[in-house]
Amino acid sequence: MDTYETLSSTVIIDKKNRLMSYSNSLKLIGTGRSAFVFKVKSSNKAIKIFFPNFTHIAKEEAEVYQILQGITHYPSIYDVGFNYIVIDYVEGYTLFECITHGKAITSSHIKEIDYALSLASARGLNPSDIHLRNIIIASNGEIKLIDVARFRQTKDCKQWHNLKKAYRRHYHKRYFPKKVSATILNKIAFLYKKGLIPTYRI
Ligand SMILES: Nc1ncnc2c1ncn2[C@@H]1O[C@H](COP(=O)(O)OP(=O)(O)OP(=O)(O)O)[C@@H](O)[C@H]1O
Ligand SMILES: [Mg+2]
Questions:
Q1: Which one of 47, 82, 122, 167 is most buried, by most CB atoms within 10 A?
Q2: Which atom of ligand 1 lies nearest, measured to the CA of 75?
Q3: Is residue 147 among the annotated active site residues?
């Protein structure tokens, strides 16, 4: 098998952060605001390749994963390079996908996410950027948190607090449709980010 470094060099991203090409050994599984994420087909690992302007995050995210090693709610880390990290591939659905596919998010999932975050805090971290696409309910029902690059920021992050509030006030209620289209959910996320939902200010 090619080294992770060789695999990373097959991923070509242009100046507008468009993905131009990548090796046949990789399968694209996610796109974020700073990276493309691939499953390495022959393994259970994921390689996160940062956009050219975000390569500095690779080292930071790798260091945070190192601090979290041994906590089962976070992927293990296997390699880091100047523009990539290699972590466990998590088979499952992000909370965003759970809502758009109509898969139930239960109160015990919420408790388990709280617990996972408390374990990170106990290691001196400040869990931040906790949003619907950074939390995965794995196929075996376990909770996995990904995208930990901002866990060392000092600024207070209200996102998880607000998500829990929305869960209690709306999702949990009988009237709430358990399946919402991605278009609508993205629109709600957009309004939230702009600070346009008064009781959920960031
Ligand atoms: N280890 C993994 N296993 C399975 N899917 C993953 C994994 N890592 C990332 N993904 C998928 O790829 C998407 C983007 O990954 P990630 O959140 O790490 O990128 P990002 O650019 O840092 O995101 P953000 O926009 O939140 O800053 C995730 O929302 C998820 O759907
Ligand atoms: Mg993310």
A1: 47
A2: 1
A3: no
Q: Mind listing the pLDDT tens digit for each residue in 105-116? A: 999 999 999 999
Q: Which pTM was predicted?
A: 0.95
* CATH number of the domain within which 42 lies: 3.30.200.20
Pocket test for ligand 1, best of 4, 48, 60 (most atoms within 8 A of CB): 48
Range of the domain at 65: 4-88
Residues 98, 196, single domain; the answer is yes
Number of structural domains (the chain) is 2
**Is the domain of 84 the same as that of 106?**
no
Same domain, 163 and 76: no
Give the pLDDT score at 199: 82
Which of 17, 29, 142 for mutating ligand 1's site (highest number of atoms within 8 Å of CB)? 29
Indicate the DSSP class of residue 139. T
**Cα 24 from Cα 26, distance rounded (Å):** 5
